[in-house]
C-alpha cells in the first residue's frame, strides 16, 4: 500500500511574519509541555521572587518573570523537554535580549511608529491558520505550557515595529536605483562559476568586554542546543541579534568574500547540513549552518506547479475491513484519475490540505517514489489514488519547467541590496541605542536568592558589527 506524500509546502512567508510562523511551527510534543510545566514557580515565595526587578532600561523595568517567560517560550518553541536547570545557562543572554528589545521599543515609540493591536491579532491568526490551530488555539497552547501569551505578543510587537522603523530610516535607500541594480547584476555575472553558499546565521554581539566570557558560554550553550535537535530557525528567531533573525536566520546565497574570513574558511570545508562551532567575528560571535552549495550562476532545477486533493478517512484504515466512508473516499479519488488540474482543485475544496502547495522543486522532494511519480506524470492528468491509513490522495502536475535558479533577476538583486542596507543600519542603530542608554543591573538573573546589589548606572557599549 502506497503512503501519500506529506503536505507539500510552498514558498516561505515573508518578513516580518516569516519568523512568527517558526515560533510554534507545530504543536509541541507532550513531553515538551510537561517539561515546561516543571518551570512553573511555586505559588507564594517564588511568585514574589519572579516580580523582582532585574534591570532598569531608561526607566523601563525587566523582571525575573520577564526572563522566565522568554526562557519558557524558547523551550516550547524548540519542542524540547528542557529542564529548568538546563535553561539556567540562558539567563544572562535572555536578559541582554530583553534589554535590547526595551531599547528598540522605546525608539519605536519615540519616533511614533505605530504597531496596532489588530496587527498583532492578525499575525496570531495567521500563525494559527498556518498550523491548523483553531481560533484561540495558540493562546491556549502557550497557557498550557506556562507561558503568558503577552510574552509572544510583546516579541511580535517589537519585531514589527523595529522592521518598520528601519525601513523608514532608510528613506530613499530602500529603493535602489536602476543603475545600482544593473551594477549588482553585472558583478554577479562576472563571478559566474565561483562557489556560493546557502547559509543561516545566529549573531550574538559582544557589547560589554567585561561580559565577553559570559557571552561566549551562552553561545556555546546555543550550539549545544542545536546539536541536541533545536531547529536552527527557532534558535535564530529567539536569540540572534542580526536582522536576519526576522527570517529565522536565513542569509540566502552568499559568496566567500561576503563573509568574515574565518567563517568563509570554515564554510568552504563543511558538509551540507553542518553547523559551525561559535566563530569570533567583528562585534561578536557567529554560528552558521550550511544548507546548500552551488557554483555562482549555475543551478538548474525542475519546477513543478501541482494540484493535490487529500480525502481524509474518518478512522484509521483496516485494509481487510474498510468502512463505507473509506470505500467512498477511495472511489471518489479513483474517479479523479486522469482528470485535469481544475477537477483536482475542485475536489480539494473543504479538505484539510491546500489544493495548490505553491511551486515545488522536483529535486528537493525527498521520497524517491514520490519524486519518480511527479517526474513521470503527464501534464494535466491526475495520478491514480495514493492510499494510506489516514486518507487517500490524488496529484496532478499542471506545469513542469527547467529553470536556472542561480540566475539573478532584477527583483532579487534589489531585495539583496536592501537587505544588506537594512542589516547594516539595524546593527548601527542598536549599537547607538546601547551607547546612549542608562541601564541598571539590579539583580543577577541566574541567582534568585542573591541579595540585591546597589544599583549602578552604566552605559552599555558595543563593538561595531
Automatic annotation (TrEMBL):
Q: Which organism is it from?
A: Caldovatus aquaticus
Query: Looking at the record, which segments are called Disordered?
Result: 440-465
| Annotated PpiC domain residues | 194-292
The UniProt keyword set, sorted, is: Chaperone, Isomerase, Periplasm, Rotamase, Signal
Record protein name field: Parvulin-like PPIase
PANTHER family xref list: CHAPERONE SURA
- PROSITE patterns referenced in this protein's UniProt entry, alphabetically: PPIC_PPIASE_1, PPIC_PPIASE_2
The molecular function terms in GO held by this entry are: peptidyl-prolyl cis-trans isomerase activity
Compositional bias, Low complexity, is annotated for 448-465
Amino acid at each position: 500500500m502506497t503512503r501519500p506524500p506529506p503536505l507539500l509546502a510552498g514558498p516561505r512567508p515573508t518578513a516580518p511574519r516569516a519568523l512568527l510562523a517558526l515560533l510554534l511551527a507545530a504543536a509541541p510534543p507532550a513531553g515538551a509541555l510537561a517539561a515546561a510545566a516543571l518551570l512553573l514557580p511555586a505559588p507564594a515565595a517564588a511568585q514574589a521572587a519572579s516580580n523582582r526587578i532585574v534591570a532598569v532600561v531608561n526607566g523601563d523595568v525587566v523582571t525575573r518573570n520577564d526572563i522566565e517567560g522568554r526562557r519558557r517560550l524558547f523551550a516550547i518553541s524548540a519542542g524540547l523537554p528542557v529542564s529548568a536547570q538546563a535553561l539556567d545557562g540562558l539567563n544572562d543572554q535572555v536578559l541582554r535580549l530583553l534589554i535590547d528589545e526595551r531599547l528598540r521599543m522605546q525608539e519605536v515609540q519615540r519616533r511614533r511608529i505605530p504597531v496596532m493591536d489588530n496587527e498583532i491579532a492578525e499575525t496570531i491568526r495567521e500563525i494559527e491558520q498556518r498550523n491548523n490551530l483553531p481560533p484561540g488555539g495558540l493562546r491556549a497552547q502557550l497557557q498550557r505550557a506556562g507561558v503568558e501569551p503577552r510574552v509572544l505578543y510583546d516579541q511580535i510587537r517589537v519585531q514589527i515595529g523595529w522592521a518598520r522603523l528601519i525601513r523608514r530610516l532608510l528613506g530613499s535607500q530602500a529603493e535602489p536605483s536602476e543603475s545600482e541594480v544593473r551594477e549588482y547584476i553585472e558583478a554577479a555575472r562576472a563571478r559566474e562559476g565561483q562557489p556560493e553558499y546557502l547559509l543561516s546565521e545566529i549573531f550574538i554581539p559582544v557589547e560589554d568586554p567585561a561580559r565577553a566570557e559570559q557571552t561566549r558560554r551562552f553561545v556555546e550553550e546555543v550550539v549545544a542546543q542545536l546539536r541536541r535537535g533545536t531547529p536552527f530557525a527557532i534558535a535564530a528567531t529567539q536569540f540572534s541579534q542580526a536582522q536576519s533573525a526576522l527570517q529565522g536566520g536565513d542569509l540566502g546565497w552568499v559568496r566567500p568574500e561576503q563573509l568574515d574570513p574565518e567563517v568563509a574558511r570554515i564554510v568552504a570545508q563543511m558538509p551540507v547540513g553542518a553547523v559551525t562551532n561559535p566563530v569570533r567575528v567583528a562585534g561578536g560571535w557567529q554560528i552558521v549552518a550550511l544548507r546548500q552549495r552551488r557554483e555562482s550562476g549555475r543551478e538548474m532545477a525542475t519546477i513543478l506547479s501541482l494540484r493535490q486533493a487529500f480525502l481524509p478517512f474518518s478512522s484509521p484504515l483496516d485494509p481487510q475491513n474498510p468502512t463505507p466512508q473509506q470505500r467512498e473516499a477511495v472511489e471518489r479519488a479513483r474517479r479523479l484519475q486522469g482528470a485535469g488540474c481544475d477537477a483536482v482543485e475542485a475536489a480539494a475544496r473543504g479538505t484539510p490540505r491546500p489544493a495548490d502547495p505553491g511551486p515545488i522543486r522536483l529535486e528537493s522532494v525527498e521520497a524517491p517514489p514520490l519524486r519518480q511519480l511527479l517526474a513521470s506524470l503527464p501534464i494535466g492528468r491526475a495520478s491514480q489514488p495514493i492510499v494510506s491509513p489516514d486518507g487517500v490522495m490524488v496529484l496532478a502536475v499542471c506545469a513542469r519547467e527547467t529553470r536556472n535558479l542561480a540566475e539573478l533577476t532584477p527583483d532579487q538583486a534589489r531585495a539583496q541590496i536592501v537587505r544588506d542596507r537594512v542589516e547594516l543600519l539595524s546593527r548601527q542603530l542598536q549599537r547607538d541605542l546601547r551607547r546612549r542608554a542608562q541601564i541598571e543591573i539590579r539583580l543577577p538573573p541566574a541567582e534568585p536568592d542573591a541579595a540585591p546589589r546597589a544599583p549602578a548606572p552604566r552605559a552599555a557599549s558595543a563593538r561595531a558589527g
